[in-house]
Amino acid sequence: MNQKIKLLIIEDDNDINKLLYEMLLNEGYTVKQAYSGTEALIYLEQEYWHMVLLDLMLPGKSGEELLGDIRKRMTAPVIIISAKEERSIKIDMLRLGADDFISKPFDIDEVLARIESNLRRYIEFSSYDNSKYKNIVDYKEISINKDTREVFVNDNNVILTSREFDILELLINNPKKVFSKSNLFESIWKSEYLCDDNTITVHVSNLRNKLSKFETKYNYIQTVWGIGYKLEK
């Protein structure tokens, strides 16, 4: 399950950021690094995160401001990791919506234990719906969220049209099946196929181009000559 849990590290100190990143990566989590408040805000707008590790003293946008932005977007746990040790600051951050506060310098094992504890409570006991995992489908470098209709390739958000998403979802849900053009059309457009090859060809071509922009190792949608399309094994 860890690989489906996405954590965002927001820390401007390169060494600390790298330390946290490598620790979480070794534990099997999907991890993204941000080094400023403004950079973090971009990632927060692009994706949903299951936890945020947040420093307070950040360039661009402070951790305090960012915490308010996070709470407007999601209920996921936020752990503050900061050199600010004043009791009043800790209390203020907890009141603003932080779930935990870890002071620097920290013990790496304690940080990991706090992360695991907060994630466990969030997933099992909070308003977080564990069924969300069932609606996320991974195939090689691709991850699709059926609820939000988002697609990610190598952690990059791919903007698809509704038809393109439906085609990709259909292929990923049936990775061994070869779809004729009529099968594909009738499954996606929900109407009778009238030999409109151009409609299918254009949508598949656009989908291929969008997937290939992110340095993928595979040509995901293969043409089966004389028949239609299938997903690369």
Q: Which terms would index this structure?
A:
elongated; 42% helix; four-stranded antiparallel β-sheet; 12 strands; alpha/beta; five-stranded parallel β-sheet; 233 residues; Arc Repressor Mutant, subunit A; Rossmann fold
Query: Strands of the largest sheet, in order across it?
Result: 2-1-3-4-5
Query: Beta-sheet strand percentage?
Result: 15-25%
Portion of residues within helices = 40-55%
What oligomeric state do these chains adopt?
A: single chain
Major sheet size, sense and barrel closure = 5 strands, parallel
Number of domains: 2
Envelope shape: elongated
Query: What is the element string, with H for helices and E for strands?
Result: EHEHEHEHEHEEEEHEHHEE
CATH top level assignment of the largest domain:
Alpha Beta
Q: In whole angstroms, how far apart are the ends?
A: 23 Å
Alpha-beta classification: alpha/beta
What is the CATH superfamily classification of the largest domain?
Response regulator
Per CATH, what is the topology of the largest domain?
A: Rossmann fold
- Uncertain residue ranges: 126-133
Number of strands: 12
What is the mean pLDDT? Answer: 86
What Rg is obtained from the alpha carbons, in whole angstroms? 21 Å
What's the total helix number?
8
Quick recap:
This protein has 233 residues and is of the alpha/beta class.
Secondary structure blueprint with pairings:
Layout: E1 6-10, H1 14-26, E2 30-34, H2 37-46, E3 51-54, H3 63-73, E4 78-82, H4 87-96, E5 100-103, H5 108-125, E6 136-139, E7 142-145, E8 150-153, E9 156-158, H6 162-173, E10 179-180, H7 181-189, H8 197-212, E11 221-224, E12 228-231
Parallel strand pairs: 1-2, 1-3, 3-4, 4-5
Antiparallel strand pairs: 6-7, 7-8, 8-9, 10-12, 11-12
Helix pairs in contact: 2-3, 6-7, 6-8
